[in-house]
Structures are given as C-alpha cells and as structure tokens.
Predict the 3D structure of the following.
Amino acid sequence: MNLRKIYKLGSPPYFFKLAILLEPWFLGCALLLISIGMYGGLFIAPPDYQMGDAYRIIYFHVPSAYLSMMAYVAMAMGSVVGLVWRSNVAFSFANSCAPVGASFTFLALITGMLWGKPMWGSAWVWDARLTSELILLFLYLAYILLYLSIPDRSKADRSASLFAIVGLVNIPIIHYSVVWWNTLHQASTLSRLAKPAIASEMLWPLMIMILGFSLFFFGIIMRRTAAEIMNREKKTRWIGSIFSEENDNV
Amino acid sequence: MIDVFRIIFLRDLKVSLRRWSDVFISLIFFILVCLIFPLTAGDDQILLLKIIGPVMLISALLATLLSMQSLFKPDVSNGSLEQLVISSNSLAYVVCIKIFCFWLVTVLPLLFVSGFIAASYYVDQQSILIVILTLLVSTPTFVNIAALAAALTVGVRHSGALMALIIIPLTLPAMIFGSKAIEYSILGFDPTAPLYFLIGMMIFTSTLGPFVTAAAIRISID
Amino acid sequence: MIKHNLKSECLELFRNDDLIFSDVSFDLSPGQHLIVNGSNGSGKTSLLRTICGLTVPSGGLLYWDGIESQTIDSNFYSYLAYLGHKNGLLAELTGKENLEYTLGISATEKDQYRIIEGFNLTEFMDQLVVKLSHGQQRKIALSKIVQSGKILWILDEPFANLDGKGTAFLISEIQSHLNQGGMLISTENTDQPIIDSDINFNLDAP
C-alpha cells in the first residue's frame, strides 16, 4: 500500500486532475455495463413464475437501493477524513455524495412503489425497510439543509460532517431491517455466504447493473467533487493556470 | 469533578427555575398536544388505546424540541458557553451535567402529568405505570439527541425546523420501541423486551451523546 | 517556579476565502504585555479568539510552555482567562451568584471584596445582572478575570465602556498582575495605548 499516493489525494490540484481524468472512463464503462445489464435483464432473463414480467424493475430498484446506502457510507467516510485531517478535498467529496445519494434513495423509493402496486396491491406500506429507506432520504436532506444554512463554509463542513457520522447508525438498521422484523418486504436477494435465491439468468444482469450503477455513481461524484474543489480554490494560482491554459489552447 | 458538578448543576438549576415560564410552556404544550387527539378524534376508546403510545412519545419529543432551543442559544449569546469551552474542565462532562439538569427540570414534570393523561385515554392502572416507565427511559434518548441537534444549529435562523429534521430520523428507533412497549402492555403482553431496547438506547445515547454534542459545540462556537 | 511562555508561529486565518490575518509570530514571557492594534474589522478579535483556541486557525501553531496548546497534553487552559466582547454573565443570576458559580476563582475572600470595592460594585452585587447597566456588567466580567488568579489574561478591548474610576482601578490591577509575573494580551483601537506594551502587532499593516 503506497501511503504516499493516498496522502497525495488530499492535495486539491492532484485530486482535481485525477478526477477530471477518470470521469469519462467511469461514465463510459458505466454506460456500457448498464446497456448490457438492461439488455440482459429486459430481454434475456426469463419471466418470473409468480410475478411475470413485472419483476424486471428489480434491475433498477436493487442497484438504486444498494447505491443509496453505499453513497451514505462514502459520504460518512469522506466526513471522517475531512474532520480528522481537515481536508478540503474530503469535504468536497462528502458534499458531492449528498445530493447524488439522495437522488438514488428517491429513485429506490419510486421504483419500489411502482413495483409494489402490482405485487402487493398498494404503492406504499409502512414496513420496516421502506420506512428506514425513507428515513435515509430525510438524513440526506438534513445533511444538505444543515450545510446550506450555516454561512461560514468551514463551520458548515464540519457540522454537516459530524451529523453524517452520527447518522451512520441508520445504515445497519436499513440493511438488517428485513432480518429483524418480519414484515412485508422480501428478504435479501443477495447475501455474501448463502447461495443466491435467484436463477442465474436473472442474477448476472442484476450484478452487472449494480456494477454499472456504481461506476456511474463514481463518475458523477468525480465531476461534482472537481467542481466543488474548483469553487473552493477559485482564488488560487493553480486554478487560474488551468483556465489560462485552456484559453491558450482555444 | 464533584465541584464542577455542583457548580454547573446548581447554576443551571437556578437559571432554569428563574426562567420558569419556559418550563411551564413546554409542560402546557405537552398537555395540549396530548389532549388534541381525543378532542378531535372523538371519544372512541379502542382508537384512543391504540394511539396513546405514539401520541405520548411524539408530544414528549415535540416538547423537548421546543424547550431545547433555550438550552444553548442564550448561553452562546451571553458568552458563558465560550467560557466553558476554554475552561480546563472536560466540555463533555459539563455538557452532560447541563443535559441532566435540563432533563430534570423540563422532562420530569411531563412524567408526572403523563399518568393523568393516560388515565384520560382509558388506559388501565397497570399500563399507566408502563407508560410512565416508557417515557422515563425514552426521554433521555430524546434529550441527548435534541441537545446534539441544538448544538449543531446554534447559529442558524429558524433552527426549529432544521432541529426537527435532524432529531426525527435519529430518534425514530426509540419512538418505535417505545410505542411497542406501551402497545404490548395495553394488550396484556409482556413489555419487557422493548423496554430493554429502550434502556440500551438510553445508555448508548447518554454516554456517547455528550461527547458528540461537545464536539458540535466546539464547531459552532468557532 | 516554572517560567511560563506563550509562543506562536505564523498563525494564519482564512474565512470563506478571505484572508483575515497571516504570519503572526510572537514570543511572550511573564511580565510582558502584547497589544494587538488595528482599525475596526481588521481581525483583532479573530486573532485573540484564535490564540484562545475558540477559532481554529487555517495555519500556524501556538505553544504554551513548549507544548502545542490544542493537544491533550497541554495545560494551557488552566492558565488562561479570556474576556471577549460578550461578558459571559448569566442574565438571570445576580452579580454575586455569577461570581459564586464560576469555576476557577482562586482569590481569597478579602481579595474578592477589595476588587468588587475597587470597581464600585458593592451595592449592585445583589441585583440581577439583567438590571445593571452595560458598564456595570462589564465591570463584573472584569472582576471575574482579575479574581481568577490565572497567569495569562486575554482581554478584548478591556477599557471600553468603563468610567474613569473603573479604568484607573483596572490599570492598577493589570500593573500588579504583570509585576507578579502574569502575561497580558489585549486589543486597542487607538494609537495611544493606555498601558505600555512590550510587543505590538498592527493588523492594518499590509
């Protein structure tokens, strides 16, 4: 493990250039994987014997839900790094994760509702997993609103980061809610140790979609973080030189 | 350590008792919110027995939210919180004492009244004790999380709504278990399991809460 | 007797991309008085708050007795008494109760009485702080500092709002504090400092 490289990530110019470089690769691979996954999920995978074709929304619902939790964990990790090392890059990263994570949570809830109507007969049920996912949406909104309502940026960063870390306690609750409470939402489809309870032709498009969504998430985060760094460092020389280079090239 | 406890505790106690109108307001608020439900929902015994748990807990949470704004805001504006931050005592310990004093002065009266309100909701005597016990063990969780929210939003305008947005997701597990405990007791089942969860959450938030709140105060005072 | 020492290295503060102050370095020994000069808004209060540790600096370090003041090994706060713009008094308590419930007062009863007398506050100590005038409240806050027995005093515009007698008494207390080996950091608005300083910082200088 090259620790030097990791410390370099904390330097705004280095991270900025890395992010701008990596972003098209992430998004390109994401596009490719999502296309493959969608083709596999919508056309190749057989219809479910209970739900027919209606189950295919799983290919959007499960990746969104997975990403919503992963985005929060990424945000919390960025917050920890930001608080401990007082790093602008880490705070920019955490701030970028918040709206994206909120969008994925919203998407997960909407696709869940679209699926719930034909499957359970009702778009919304007050079951443990749905409620805790809704709570996750509120946690993201609280983070964003807390950050926006404090005028001093360094204070806003640190307060919101502290809140993000405290809210981390909700993630295990969401994940294990289907285990702890026996309510309507089905049990986890994918588990690390057990054999998946799903046919393999249905499984691989799902894995590809999850991977594709994750790469899409990282691509978006790279761009947003780079934009936030640009905003924070707007008075420094290295940002000025990037823009004057571009002007020269144009 | 005992000296610090004595001084901070007596000081906060005196100040709270001189601001007794604040305490009274949150008590009246609690009673009013609890009474709105039977007044508007009608005299339906089955319905009232079903909603007493959530109603009690939500009213307690809202009353805590209401009076929590006066825990840190005045101290920041008159500079006494700054002095506590730069004293050589542990800020977490001082915050713990302040939260404890707040709980005694603001929440304890709610516990006294809750018994009577539960009786007006047709709850039987055995369950009234469980209602009071549930409030007793869930309110420290509310108070600690509300203190964290108050510390995070100290300089913000309209902090009430933002505090609610911060508090509600974090206290939801406590509220769920609390209403489960009251529901089990009213139905005649054994409420000990949810009560144990509540006690566990109370211990968790009361021990870790002051540290996180102290960190939040340090950030807000900047 | 340990010889205490406050040293700062290149303290720097940014707020929302604006530079407040930079390159503030000094070495303060017992008996010395440091004055921070500057017009309104030049960052004097921010500098004092940074030294106290209330505001986290964007760069630079502060050492008390050779140990960084913000680390857990440091006993900086056992020796510090700070008075900012706000008085730190609880409005619902009387002056006497405010002093009674203060942590870290180490003056003897006789001394406390002398200081209250010197600030002309004896008749007012039993009134609620909220009923006193701003000047009287300021005097109570100052008497808290004077009674604290701490070595390092950091006072933000100590002579503001004080009447003639109060000013004279404060000057004499500060002189005896410095003579006994205390240290003082204060801010002044004017070019003519009321008490002579050993080190002078002007934050207006480019």
Notes: Residues 22-183+196-249 of chain A form one domain. The longest helix of chain A spans residues 12-44. The mean pLDDT of chain A is 86.
